[in-house]
# Entry
Amino acid sequence: MIGPGTGLGAAFISNNVVFPTEVGNTQFTFQQILADVGVTNVQQFKVLEDLLSGRGISRLYENFSGVLNSPEDVVRLCKDKDQNAIKAIDAFIDSLAIVISDMALTYMPGRGIFVAGGLMRTIYNFIDQERFINRFIGQRKSMHQDLLQQIPIGIITREMTCLHGNLAFLTSQLMKS
# Structure
């Protein structure tokens, strides 16, 4: 599970055990991702969550337009067909696909990858599925492309997923008693 928002959170779940990460504060392949999505002003991007978070959308917009706007304003501008906002949202989504791809090859999530959070619900309609999958699969070796094509990816659109997840877990534990 990965959730860009005020920062970038990710966890891996195996047999109902959650393994939290600090992936948002990593720098693996980070400079290459910035280059791949057209970021020229790299000084503002130190760790992954500087790119994959609400403030990342603001910084991407600033990179393309020279103007710093809130993530909400960038989304509104994208809806209004502002070309710099479209570039910023596309760069964010492309970056997310690349990072999820690396994480998928690292952890081999057989049951899939789930992307969560209000930010993702907000930009969900801007995701070009074909483009996302192309970035996710990327220019990998054919054996890795085959592996990635088998991994389902879902975006959780339900609000308050943490509350629902905690309630489901508690219920399952109470049923065991």
Remarks:
- Residues 83-107 form the longest helix (25 residues).
- The chain has a mean pLDDT of 90.
- The two ends are 28 Å apart (CA to CA).
